[in-house]
Amino acid sequence: MLNAVQAMSDPGRSALRADTSANAPRELILRTARETGQDRRPCAAVHVIDTGPGIPHDTLLKVFDPYFTTRSGGTGLGLPTARRIIEAHGGRLDARTEVGRGTDFVASFPTVGPTPRGQGRPTAMP
Asked: Is-contact 22 38, C-beta < 8 A?
């Protein structure tokens, strides 16, 4: 979320927006949804969407690389670390972007269905 807010408030990037008026809406949107993952299994998704300048294609290819940053003073560790943590929990972190319109980072996690009756439940020791 911090990356999204910073991207929307960076005056040097506003020239990339399709609507460069001073009154162009800047929004940070958090959305959760039940979706189908790439493996066609159900998942829970958390979308972090901004209406900032979007990410150029050549930059998008590098945003998950450790130490890659476009910000002065940035470490380039935020997104790679977030992706590793999400993947360690069986999830995925992806980005969808459109230059001039904004970016949608999606963290998706497989959902766990109900445990069949009698399976996976604690049992009393005799």
From this structure: no
